[in-house]
Amino acid sequence: MDRKISLSQYRWMDVGTLTVLMVFAELLIFLAVSQWFPEQLFTVSPIGAIVTLVMMRWGFEAAVPAAVGGLLYSVLYGGNGSQILIYTLGNLLAMVMVPVFRKIGKEKIRSEKFIGIMLALGVSVLMQIGRGLVALLFGGTMGTLLRFITTGVLSDIFTMIVIWITYQVDGLFEDQKHYLLRIQKEQEERGKQS
Protein backbone atom coordinates (compact mmCIF):
# COMPACT_ATOMS: atom_id res chain seq x y z
CA MET A 1 0.00 0.00 0.00
CA ASP A 2 1.52 3.30 -1.15
CA ARG A 3 0.24 5.83 1.40
CA LYS A 4 1.29 9.43 0.82
CA ILE A 5 0.96 12.22 3.30
CA SER A 6 -0.18 15.74 2.48
CA LEU A 7 2.10 18.76 2.68
CA SER A 8 0.13 19.94 5.72
CA GLN A 9 0.64 16.60 7.49
CA TYR A 10 4.35 16.66 6.63
CA ARG A 11 4.64 20.26 7.88
CA TRP A 12 3.10 19.55 11.27
CA MET A 13 4.98 16.26 11.69
CA ASP A 14 8.19 18.18 10.97
CA VAL A 15 7.35 21.06 13.33
CA GLY A 16 6.29 18.55 16.00
CA THR A 17 9.45 16.49 15.64
CA LEU A 18 11.70 19.54 15.86
CA THR A 19 9.75 20.84 18.87
CA VAL A 20 10.10 17.47 20.65
CA LEU A 21 13.84 17.50 19.84
CA MET A 22 14.07 20.98 21.36
CA VAL A 23 12.19 19.86 24.50
CA PHE A 24 14.50 16.87 24.89
CA ALA A 25 17.62 19.04 24.45
CA GLU A 26 16.30 21.65 26.90
CA LEU A 27 15.61 18.92 29.47
CA LEU A 28 19.14 17.54 29.06
CA ILE A 29 20.64 21.01 29.50
CA PHE A 30 18.47 21.61 32.57
CA LEU A 31 19.60 18.28 34.04
CA ALA A 32 23.23 19.18 33.39
CA VAL A 33 22.87 22.64 34.95
CA SER A 34 20.83 21.56 37.96
CA GLN A 35 22.53 18.25 38.77
CA TRP A 36 26.01 18.14 37.30
CA PHE A 37 27.12 21.80 37.18
CA PRO A 38 24.94 23.71 39.67
CA GLU A 39 27.65 26.35 40.30
CA GLN A 40 27.55 27.60 36.71
CA LEU A 41 26.17 31.11 36.33
CA PHE A 42 25.23 30.79 32.66
CA THR A 43 23.42 28.23 30.58
CA VAL A 44 22.60 27.71 26.92
CA SER A 45 19.28 26.97 25.33
CA PRO A 46 18.42 25.26 22.03
CA ILE A 47 15.24 27.31 21.60
CA GLY A 48 16.74 29.96 19.30
CA ALA A 49 18.29 27.35 17.02
CA ILE A 50 15.09 25.33 16.66
CA VAL A 51 12.97 28.44 16.14
CA THR A 52 15.38 29.61 13.41
CA LEU A 53 15.37 26.19 11.77
CA VAL A 54 11.56 25.97 11.74
CA MET A 55 11.34 29.56 10.51
CA MET A 56 13.58 28.73 7.56
CA ARG A 57 11.74 25.49 6.83
CA TRP A 58 8.16 26.77 7.19
CA GLY A 59 7.80 30.38 8.38
CA PHE A 60 5.32 31.45 11.04
CA GLU A 61 4.98 27.84 12.28
CA ALA A 62 8.14 28.71 14.25
CA ALA A 63 5.77 30.28 16.78
CA VAL A 64 5.05 26.75 18.06
CA PRO A 65 8.58 25.92 19.28
CA ALA A 66 9.04 29.55 20.37
CA ALA A 67 6.04 29.41 22.70
CA VAL A 68 6.63 25.82 23.85
CA GLY A 69 10.29 26.61 24.50
CA GLY A 70 9.45 29.70 26.55
CA LEU A 71 6.89 27.79 28.58
CA LEU A 72 9.23 24.86 29.20
CA TYR A 73 12.23 27.05 30.08
CA SER A 74 10.30 29.13 32.59
CA VAL A 75 8.67 26.09 34.21
CA LEU A 76 11.96 24.17 34.47
CA TYR A 77 13.71 27.06 36.18
CA GLY A 78 10.87 27.64 38.64
CA GLY A 79 9.12 30.57 37.01
CA ASN A 80 5.90 31.98 38.42
CA GLY A 81 2.88 32.98 36.34
CA SER A 82 4.31 36.28 35.15
CA GLN A 83 7.67 34.70 34.29
CA ILE A 84 5.90 32.02 32.26
CA LEU A 85 4.14 34.77 30.29
CA ILE A 86 7.38 36.72 29.93
CA TYR A 87 9.21 33.78 28.33
CA THR A 88 6.30 32.35 26.36
CA LEU A 89 5.04 35.63 24.89
CA GLY A 90 8.47 37.24 24.72
CA ASN A 91 9.84 34.52 22.47
CA LEU A 92 7.13 35.32 19.93
CA LEU A 93 8.80 38.65 19.08
CA ALA A 94 11.16 36.57 16.93
CA MET A 95 8.28 36.11 14.47
CA VAL A 96 9.07 39.57 13.07
CA MET A 97 11.99 37.80 11.36
CA VAL A 98 9.68 35.74 9.11
CA PRO A 99 9.13 38.67 6.68
CA VAL A 100 12.89 39.29 6.76
CA PHE A 101 13.52 35.69 5.67
CA ARG A 102 10.99 36.16 2.87
CA LYS A 103 12.41 39.53 1.81
CA ILE A 104 15.97 38.23 1.57
CA GLY A 105 14.76 35.03 -0.06
CA LYS A 106 15.17 31.57 1.39
CA GLU A 107 17.26 30.38 -1.57
CA LYS A 108 19.76 33.19 -1.00
CA ILE A 109 19.82 32.37 2.71
CA ARG A 110 20.35 28.69 1.92
CA SER A 111 23.28 29.46 -0.36
CA GLU A 112 25.00 32.04 1.86
CA LYS A 113 25.92 30.77 5.32
CA PHE A 114 26.85 34.16 6.71
CA ILE A 115 23.34 35.51 6.05
CA GLY A 116 21.73 32.47 7.68
CA ILE A 117 23.95 32.70 10.73
CA MET A 118 23.25 36.44 11.14
CA LEU A 119 19.51 35.79 10.81
CA ALA A 120 19.81 33.13 13.52
CA LEU A 121 21.48 35.71 15.75
CA GLY A 122 18.62 38.09 15.01
CA VAL A 123 16.03 35.47 15.97
CA SER A 124 17.82 34.70 19.24
CA VAL A 125 18.32 38.35 20.21
CA LEU A 126 14.71 39.24 19.34
CA MET A 127 13.46 36.51 21.68
CA GLN A 128 15.54 38.05 24.48
CA ILE A 129 14.31 41.55 23.67
CA GLY A 130 10.76 40.21 23.58
CA ARG A 131 11.18 38.74 27.05
CA GLY A 132 12.54 42.04 28.30
CA LEU A 133 9.66 44.00 26.77
CA VAL A 134 7.05 41.70 28.30
CA ALA A 135 8.91 41.99 31.61
CA LEU A 136 8.55 45.79 31.35
CA LEU A 137 4.79 45.29 31.20
CA PHE A 138 5.05 43.42 34.51
CA GLY A 139 6.98 46.26 36.16
CA GLY A 140 10.51 45.44 35.06
CA THR A 141 13.08 48.12 34.32
CA MET A 142 15.41 48.83 31.43
CA GLY A 143 18.00 46.95 33.50
CA THR A 144 15.77 43.89 33.29
CA LEU A 145 15.68 44.20 29.51
CA LEU A 146 19.47 44.53 29.41
CA ARG A 147 19.88 41.45 31.65
CA PHE A 148 17.80 39.34 29.26
CA ILE A 149 20.10 40.35 26.42
CA THR A 150 23.41 39.95 28.24
CA THR A 151 22.60 36.63 29.90
CA GLY A 152 21.52 35.24 26.52
CA VAL A 153 24.91 35.69 24.85
CA LEU A 154 25.89 32.02 25.20
CA SER A 155 22.55 30.96 23.73
CA ASP A 156 23.15 33.39 20.84
CA ILE A 157 26.52 31.79 20.12
CA PHE A 158 25.03 28.30 20.49
CA THR A 159 22.24 29.21 18.05
CA MET A 160 24.72 30.45 15.45
CA ILE A 161 26.86 27.32 15.78
CA VAL A 162 23.84 25.00 15.43
CA ILE A 163 22.64 26.84 12.33
CA TRP A 164 26.15 26.68 10.84
CA ILE A 165 26.07 22.91 11.43
CA THR A 166 22.66 22.60 9.72
CA TYR A 167 24.23 23.97 6.54
CA GLN A 168 26.34 20.81 6.38
CA VAL A 169 23.26 18.57 5.87
CA ASP A 170 21.48 18.85 2.53
CA GLY A 171 17.88 19.96 2.91
CA LEU A 172 18.02 20.63 6.64
CA PHE A 173 18.25 24.44 6.54
CA GLU A 174 16.00 24.86 3.50
CA ASP A 175 12.43 25.86 2.79
CA GLN A 176 10.73 22.47 2.83
CA LYS A 177 8.38 23.17 -0.08
CA HIS A 178 11.42 24.01 -2.19
CA TYR A 179 13.29 20.99 -0.86
CA LEU A 180 10.47 18.58 -1.71
CA LEU A 181 10.13 20.02 -5.22
CA ARG A 182 13.91 19.87 -5.70
CA ILE A 183 14.06 16.22 -4.61
CA GLN A 184 11.09 15.33 -6.83
CA LYS A 185 12.75 16.99 -9.82
CA GLU A 186 16.04 15.17 -9.14
CA GLN A 187 14.20 11.84 -8.93
CA GLU A 188 12.38 12.53 -12.19
CA GLU A 189 15.67 13.37 -13.93
CA ARG A 190 17.25 10.14 -12.63
CA GLY A 191 14.21 8.23 -13.86
CA LYS A 192 14.61 9.68 -17.36
CA GLN A 193 18.29 8.71 -17.44
CA SER A 194 17.67 5.07 -16.50
Order of SSEs: HHHHHHHHHH
Amount of helix: over 70%
Mind telling me the CATH class?
A: Mainly Alpha
Number of helices: 10
What general outline do the C-alpha atoms trace? elongated
| Sheet with most strands | none
- From the coordinates shown, what is the CATH architecture? Orthogonal Bundle
Proportion of beta-strand residues = under 5%
Structural class by helix and strand composition: mainly alpha
Mean pLDDT comes to 93
Give the terminus-to-terminus CA distance. 25 Å
In total, the number of domains comes to 1
As for the CATH topology, it is Arp2/3 complex 21 kDa subunit ARPC3
- How many beta-strand elements? 0
Lay out the secondary structure.
Elements: H1 7-36, H2 47-57, H3 63-76, H4 81-91, H5 97-104, H6 106-111, H7 113-137, H8 142-151, H9 153-166, H10 176-193
Helix pairs in contact: 1-3, 2-3, 2-7, 2-9, 3-4, 4-7, 7-8, 7-9
What is the gist of this entry?
This protein is mostly helical and 194 residues long. It is built from 10 helices and no strands.
How would you portray this structure in words?
With 194 residues, the chain is mainly α. It has one domain (7-193): Orthogonal Bundle (Arp2/3 complex 21 kDa subunit ARPC3). The protein is built from ten helices and no strands. It has helices spanning 7-36, 47-57, 63-76, 81-91, 97-104, 106-111, 113-137, 142-151, 153-166, 176-193. Helix 1 packs parallel to helix 3, helix 2 packs antiparallel against helix 3 (63-76) and helix 4 packs antiparallel against helix 7 (113-137). The longest helix is centred in the N-terminal third of the chain and has 30 residues, at 7-36. It is elongated. The model has no long low-confidence stretch (mean pLDDT 93).
